[in-house]
Amino acid sequence: MNLDLKYGELSKDEDFVNKCENLKMNLIEVQKVLDQLLPLKAQYDKMSLPAQIELDLFLAFALNSLHWINLRIQGVDPTKHPIKEELQRIKATMLKWQEVKDRDKRPIVDIEAAKRFVRSGLYDPYRETAKPPNKKIIFKDDD
């Protein structure tokens, strides 16, 4: 890919040139990341399920974002294009995946300990009199 841009008369417009150079540098970075990740597709079947899901989500979001950028460069309004709904769907899926991953980090409730806490916190009417219910009372004869 030839990224040597010749601006001609537009080279006098520094704002335009800076934006184009910034876009070019960002596209080079994206290209490097994709060059590292796309060979992983050959080993896709050997990867763990969470790694497969994360790779799929990343690639789907990256490619749809690049399509969004392409539409913007061509002068098409991407907010009125179906790509907007696709990006929203991918973002929602990413949030669901994050919730699934965070499930492992949630604290685990010790059910037996919780039962003891509840049982000891319940009102016991015989606690104040110290007399257990249905207990025989033995009277002593002091003769």
TrEMBL record:
Q: Which Pfam families match?
A: Sas10_Utp3
InterPro entries with a match to the protein in the record:
Exosome-assoc_fac/DNA_repair (IPR011082), Sas10/Utp3/C1D (IPR007146)
Query: Where does the UniProt annotation locate this protein?
Result: Cytoplasm; Nucleus, Nucleolus; Nucleus
Q: Which UniProt keywords apply?
A: Cytoplasm, DNA-binding, Nucleus, RNA-binding, rRNA processing
- Cite the record's note on assembly: Monomer and homodimer.
Name the protein family.
Belongs to the C1D family.
Protein's UniProt name? Nuclear nucleic acid-binding protein C1D
Q: Say which species the protein is native to.
A: Parnassius mnemosyne
